[in-house]
């Protein structure tokens, strides 16, 4: 009997300690960084996109992307025009996913989600399935690591809000990703050049005035296709 009571008390104390540690950790982590973690976490959930391209094929993948992009555009335009159903559906994603510049827009502009689907569609139609899968995977994972590393430990600014630490994380992770595809796509100098081009597109996103969700996979796809 006493053992059961002690076990229950121990579990209660453990749960309480976990909650206290969670609150302490939340207090230490800046709010904007927590928002970035949530946003990039959902960004990573889009890894089903390159998987669909590789395993589903061009026809199935492109059909899915066209449907989803059309739906997303309708939702975003409906939210901009203040249609009730669209604003209700758009509220939660906007809090978790959108960057400040996307939430504070004065005129209709599409969000990063449309660029992700758009780049997936264009790459699927232009490049081979494996090159499209590599390019989209780099965009999803390396962009996430660049943002999180840059915000966490980035101190050396390169261009605008881009840091050396975040950019390095992008390049190294992009190289690793292309290496992991080596059994189905040989890692060569073309892969290194493509990763470097992706870094340039991500680093100078504001200068090019093109969302990196679109420019990164497109640049990688073009180089891998030409040099391969």
């Amino acid at each position: 009997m006493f053992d059961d009571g002690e076990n229950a008390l121990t579990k209660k104390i453990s749960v309480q300690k976990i909650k206290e540690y969670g609150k302490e950790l939340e207090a230490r982590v800046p709010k904007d960084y927590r928002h970035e973690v949530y946003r990039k976490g959902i960004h990573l959930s889009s890894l089903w996109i390159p998987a669909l391209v590789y395993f589903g094929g061009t026809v199935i993948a492109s059909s899915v992307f066209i449907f989803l992009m059309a739906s997303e555009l309708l939702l975003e335009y409906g939210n901009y025009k203040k249609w009730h159903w669209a604003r209700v559906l758009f509220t939660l994603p906007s809090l978790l996913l959108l960057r400040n510049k996307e939430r504070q827009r004065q005129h209709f502009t599409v969000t990063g989600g449309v660029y992700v689907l758009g780049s997936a569609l264009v790459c699927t139609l232009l490049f081979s399935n494996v090159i499209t899968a590599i390019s989209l995977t780099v965009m999803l994972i390396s962009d996430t690591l660049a943002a999180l590393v840059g915000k966490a430990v980035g101190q050396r600014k390169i261009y605008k809000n881009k840091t050396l630490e975040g950019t390095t994380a992008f390049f190294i992770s992009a190289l690793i990703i292309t290496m992991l595809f080596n059994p189905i796509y040989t890692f060569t100098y073309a892969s290194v050049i493509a990763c470097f081009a992706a870094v340039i597109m991500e680093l100078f996103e504001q200068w090019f005035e093109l969302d990196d969700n679109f420019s990164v996979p497109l640049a990688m796809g073009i180089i891998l296709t030409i040099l391969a």
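The chain has a mean pLDDT of 82. Residues 30-227 form one domain.
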